[in-house]
Every structure is written in structure tokens, then in C-alpha cells.
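Input:
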Amino acid sequence: MWDYTPKVKDHFLNPRNVGDIPEADAVGEVGSLACGDALKLYLKLDENKERIVDAKFQTFGCASAIASSSALTEMVKGKTLDEALAISNQDIAEFLGGLPEEKMHCSVMGQEALEVAIYKYRGIAMPEHDAEHDHGHAYPEYEGTLVCKCFGITDTFLRRVIAENNLTTSEQVTNFTKAGGACGSCIPKIKELIAEYLDKDRGTTARPKLSNLKKMQMIQDVLERDIRPLLRADGGDIELIDIDGDVVEIAFRKACAGCVSSGNTARYVEMKLKELVYEGLRVKEVSA
Amino acid sequence: MKEIYLDNNATTRVDDAVFEEMQPYFCEFYGNPSSMHYFGGQVQAKINEARKRVADLLGANPEEIIFTACGTESDNTAIRSALEIMPDRRHIITSRVEHPAILSLCRELAGKGYRLTEIGVDGAGRLNMEEYKKAVDDDTAIVSLMWANNETGVIFPVEEAAVIAKRYGAQFHTDAVQTIGKIPVNMAASKIDTLSVSGHKLHAPKGIGALYVRKGTPFKPFVVGGHQEKNRRAGTENTAGIIALGKACQLAGEFMEFENTVVKAKCERLEKELMAVIPHARVNGDGADRLPNTTSIAFEFVEGEAILLLLSELGICASSGSACTSGSLEPSHVLRAMGVPFTCAHGSIRFSLSRYTTDAEIDTVIRELPPIVARLRQMSPFGREFLSPKQ
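Output:
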């Protein structure tokens, strides 16, 4: 059973502001039946069209999706549109006393619906919501290349959620966005986006020169974190044999050993090491 | 709040008579059955009795029963044994709707160079026999097909499938953890080679299982290190667990008719009455041969976890095929294999009854569930036109 906080339980069992607002100024809809959760948010503004005076929601989803929606409507009431836009998915989760990490995508859905509602109200062009297929990420803010086909999630959206929540593993990205949670074929791409984010993050402070010890450790980390799970998924494996200056000696194991495309795999390993550790590295396959 | 426990395919209450039978073997008769003194010997005699009781329920000989720690161990043992016995055969057949104990193992083996065929099912969850017949060949080492599905209760024609496997010299294993104690089986008249049993699914405690291995079937142990179970499963016996499983099997035999008349009638009434009052619902596995105690119903426009938690507030325990309850994000692999649309797979609820289930409990669920579904539909942006109950 999920470990829900008393506040999540309260907002699930006694949800605030369920329903619609017929004369709503702003409406934001995200999610679909196929995805397993969906939220339609209605906002009513004051006479000056500045402050949110009422908010209601309709949600299809699990307990934490309903609780997140309920929390969101409570949080936005009385706020100006700009103040409301500043609400992050962490704020929603915090309001509820926290959410299980696997359920963080519920808070992201709330934040997203709020943003869609306000953008639409402000006249930023929005394509029609397609409740059959679209997870709601095909809005201008999130246009980009589709990464997760199962849940319809783009790289732009993922980059943003990764950065805002400082996510460092693909499991976290799945928990926060659902991306990669179905067939899993986009997980390598998600890892690339994480690496890109970590890289950018590092880029702000000039990268220090690597000590040998640090370099060895980073190489091992990359092999363990970025390479091995991919190979294992195909029944293969990799072993680090030696590091001789800038030459990383590796050997392929199991299904990878003697595989005709191990040359490609070795080039991929080299690419990842150059990208994540240090440009000067070279990979050499040895038969140890 | 007294619980209304309708999740017996997940686990069952230990029967009082079973608990009573096992209890003396913790503090009183704690001897090791392998010991050369009377104190251990009396435990050995009780284990022999338990083995006979399990064998009787299966229509087997006592020497065909190996005690294990759980259904998952039995599954692992059967499949790995067949592969080791026939190292030249590199093909494994299973179905797309197996329990993870089988499916994860088979997929792991597929990554180690075995060829894996996963047989599909139709919309009612029935095994595609034509696909199966085409898949078996001289390279097949092991066929593993569940006897009955844990989520839908749909029963596979494993007897017929075993006959086909034997024609090609393959071993045939069945995961029968949901079957034993619910429908009669007779291994004496069967071609099945190995069969898995789990104690906690039939009112014995957790931590005890059994593997049936047909006499004459070549076998390699999975757990090695001791002479126990005639060198087929090492490790000091879980004596109390074994004795409990024996008693549970004896009781299951006595309750077999009850299960297939009284329990079945309660389950059918639950299903029929819920379907009569809740619009836009469908029975998963409708039309297929199913276990007497299991019904799985998909409610459109609502999500399963929300239903379960609202039921739980009333003390009603059930289970769901929805994504949100499993920790994964996709609805159950069983429902997907059946082609149940994602749009209603998310709202699937399974009720699994037992001999303890009362009519009053069924009445409570029939009374409480429709307003829960209606309340969640009221909250949902979808399906608002279906709010009023069926007339």
C-alpha cells in the first residue's frame, strides 16, 4: 500500500472544489483516459481579471491525482495569475506533506494544467486538447521532439521537469513525468537528456582538471550507470580491464562477447565517455 | 471495523485447524526430522503424513511431492531443471499472461541465449491453442503454462497442452498456485510433468510451497547442499509449514464441492448484481472457463486505485489491475494481453472469494461499490453522461 500522508488522504477522501465553473475565465485540460490520469481545471477571475477568485477541478486518476488537484485549487485561490504561475509541482507536493516519489507525476500534472489554463487565457495559441491520445504536452511551451511515444512526452517538457526538479536518474524522470514507464524504449534518450542537464549544470562552473583517481572513478561510474544497464537489457555485459593514460581497455561479456556489432558498441562507449568524462579518452577492446 | 476480505488470490487466512495442527511443531516437537533419535523421528512421521495429504489432493504419489519455500521457488526449480536436463534444447514456451514468477524468469533466460515464445490469449483471456501447437518443436525443452490466471481466473486447457508438449519430448510445467484447492485436479490421469503449489493461497501460511514432479521425470535440484527431500531440495525442512500445508490440502479436498457450489454462487451473484447496476462495466474473461472464486470487472472512466482506497475505507479488501497500484505505469500485462482497452483497464477491480466469504459481505459490496464508482465518475472529466445508474 502507498504511504500517503494524512493530508493526501484528507484531500482524496474529502476533495475540495470538485466540479466545473460554467462561466470560467480560464480552463486547462491535460491527460487522457488511456494514460490513466487526466485533469480539467477551471479558474474564475475577479472583475479586474487579475486575481483568481474561484477554482474547480474534475480529475480522473488515482488517490494522489485527486489529492493533487484538490490541493492545487486551494492553493491558487486569491492569487494573481502571475503568482499562480509561480507555483511549482514541488509546491503542490509540499502542500500535501509530500507524495510518494512514484506519484510525483500527479503534482506535475496539476502544475501543467494550471499553466495551460493561464496561457490559454492570455491568448497564447493552444492546439485543441485531444483526450484520446494527447497527454497534453503538445502545447507551444512543450513543442519539441517526441521522446516517449507511449505517453506522448516531448524532449522540451522533459528538459524542463529534469531541470526544475534536479532529476539525475531515469527512474526519477519516469516517476515525475511517466516518460519511459511503459515500453521503456525511450529510457536511453531520457538518460541522454539527464546527462545533457548534468553537463550544462557543470558547465556553469568551469570544469576542473581531472585527477587520475577522479578520472578512474568517473569512468567506472559511467560504465556502471550509463552503459551496463543497456547491455544487460540485451543479455550482454561489459568489464573494465584497465585504464592506461587516456586509453580505456574494456572487454565484452555474455551476449556481447563475439557479437558482430560489438565494434559499434565500443564506439558508443567511447562516445559516452568523451561526453561524460573527458574529451581525450579512447576506448580499446581487449580480449582479456 | 471487521474486514471484508475479498482478495484471496493475493493471500488467504490461515485456517484455524491448520494453525492448530502446525503449532506444536515450534516449541514442543521441534526436532530435526533427519535426526537419529525418536524426538526427530516423530516429526518425520508427521511430514510423511503431510506429503501423503498433499499427494491425495493432487491425485499423485507421495514421492512425487517436493516441499519448497513458495510457489516462486517451485516455478524456478521446474523450469531450470528442465533446461539443465536437456542442454541441447534451447526453446522455452510460456504465455503472455503468466505470473511474474514465470515471466520474469523466462525473459531473463531469453537474454541468456534461449529462444522464448510467449503464447497470446484472446479477448476473453483464453490461450491461443493454434499458436501454441505451431510453436512447440523438437528444440523445445520446457513448456510452462499457468493452470488458472490469478487476475481473471481464466482456466487454460493445460491437460491438452501437456499432451502436445510430450509428443515433442518437451517437459510440461504448470503454475497451479491459483488452481489447487479451487478446482479438482488428478495428476494420475495427466501428462503434466511438474506442477507448482503455494501454501498461502489455500489457507496454509506464507513460506511453504510444493513442487509435484512426475515419477520418472528427469530432475535436477535448484537448491543444493543437503540430502533432504530425497536429494531434490536441500535445506532443513520447514516442518511446521509442511505440516500446515498437509492439513490445508486435506481441508481443501473436503471443501472442494463447497468451493464449486456455494463459493461459486456467491461470486456469480456479486458479478451479476454489480454488472446489473453499474453502467459501462465489463467482466474481464467473460465467456471463458473461470475459477469459481474470482471475478475481475473493468469500470470505465474511473481509476482502480481510487476505487480500492474508497473500498478500503469501508473495510473492503480487493485488488486492481490498474497501473497506479502496481508501481508501474501501465495497466496489468494480463489485461493488455487480452486487448482490454487502456481506457477501462485502469479501472479494473478483482474480487477473489474464499470459503469464509459470507452472503452478508457480498451484500455489503453490492451496496457500497456502485456509489463509489458513481462518486469517482462524478469527479472525472470523462463519462459524465453515464452518471445515473442503470434502470
